[in-house]
Protein 1
Amino acid sequence: MFRFIALAALLATAAAVRPRLDGRIVGGDDANVEDFPYQLSLQSYGSHICGASIISSKWAVTAAHCTDGSSASSLSLVAGISNLDESGQKIKIAKIHQNPQYSSWDIDYDISVLELATEIELGSTAQPVGLPSDGSDPAAGTDVVCSGWGTLYEGGYVSDQLQSVTVQIVSREDCNDQYGSGSITDRMICAGVPEGGKDACQGDSGGPLVANGQLVGIVSWGYGCARPTHAGVYSNVGALRSYIKEQSGL
């Protein structure tokens, strides 16, 4: 299933496409935005639906399935908050640069670059995350940190408090064994723990997966949440780095 919170119409559309995707942090801890200053809440008409990441004062990135079918005017971002009840910086979106190769069937090329209408005021609670080099691919076993406001367990309620969890990169070969040969493309990476219990979940979609200060992944999809048999699947930012540069110049 997708890992985002959608309005009823969007949920119906997703269900009609393919019942594969889910997206809050499972097995994590309460987090402070000062420790994750790149974290953004992507909102539809003022309600949280997905995460996103600051890559500069004028640009952000999220998952394409979070923006698919939406207009820039219906979406906004909130920066600098640990809790969804806080006000933070509210930023309008000028344009959605959704990857034209995005496929809602297999969730490939799942990235949108967001051009902001006004600049984010950078400070201790709002800072860009580093970007990996073009074509980079994090090695299996690498520790990575996922953060967001998604559900605390599969089928649960969205948390108002930011959460974070550390998981490890799973090899593409092993992840394809879990999901079926060819399901995990070069534009995807997987992360989890062998025993399960730690993962992104509903509401985390579009949010960051970070290793050593760099955005290596974007929360994308998975079967359920935190299952030992299926790792979480993320957009591979290294494989999509050229698209970010084409749109933003970064």
Protein 2
Amino acid sequence: MKKEVVAMLLAGGQGSRLYALTSNVAKPAVPFGGKYRIIDFPLSNCVNSGIDTVGVLTQYRPLELNSYLGNGQPWDLDRSDGGVHILPPYLGEGEKGSWYKGTANAIYQNIGFLDLYDPEYVVVLSGDHIYKMDYSEMVDFHKKSEAACTISVLEVTMEEAKRFGILNVEADDKVYEFEEKPPQPKSNLASMGIYVFTWSKLRKYLIDDEADPNSSNDFGKNIIPNMLNAGEKLMAYRFAGYWKDVGTIDSLWDANMDLLAGSSSGLDMYDDSWPIYARTPIKPPHCTGPDAMITHSMVTGGSTVDGAVANSVLFNSVTVEKGADIQYSILMPGATVKEGAKVYYSIVAENATVEAGATVGAAPDGSENWGIAVVAGGITVGKNATVPPKAMIREDVKGGEQA
């Protein structure tokens, strides 16, 4: 059962900044891009990178995510030797069980799982980022540099750097310092939360960290600084492609709009060389009525459109009735917008209904200049919610409030 590389995907995030969208599901299970879930991206990256053994560490509201993952078949991870494994927190004999206390503790609790495969290298991933990345290239970089840990980094502006863990490196990209959200950053190399570890090294540091009662049991706060302090070789791996942490309403809206921009945004879903796999429902093709007007939008199977849809993303089984107007919005599976209703710069969650004549959202600043560059209004209609007929829910509603 020995594997050279095993991936561990941290998918237990609560996603509190997504408000109503994650009140009943874990953040990695949130729908994205018309037919996907957020977790499809790291899972597909694993398969496309040749990693066939993936542990998915679940915690918050795992039912829907577990059901979605199933046996891993959509990602070619239904294997007898490897495949996808769902790893929730568990109670061992004589232990005072608890949730995963931090990212490092989550991996620590699954040392037994990793030992089954006795990997040379462990790739630690987050389940809530949208990006395409070949992890095999990062592993090769890690091998050649003979590092104990390699951290993927993205160049950001110095102003943005204050929001990230920042790596300060030497000329050869060897890390000499790690700073967590520094007020005065020394560099703009932001950690993406993607790590490659030499397992024999990581195993020791996880055990030592767990024995420290003062530790936060976190990679950024504890494991990485401890490895640096001990003189281990840490390297920064520079990534130059599309990457977005969709942890807020605005960033989730932005990433969906990036899909409509096509390859110019850096997020190309039509690249056959790097497909993103997903578990998709069996639905008939979408249907447009005689009064439908659809421009620059994605409309997924099972949807019925008889109104106006522009610059928007519609998931499966969405209904847009006659006279409805959808602009720069995201309608998640089963959403219904009834006759004469208007939805602007908004996200309507699964199975939510906007009743006839209601208005959700507005053009920013009341302007009629509809432009993708404008930040989303941030209106979110929560899962299974209903906006009453002729209600006015406009830009004065704070981002993420449930209707």
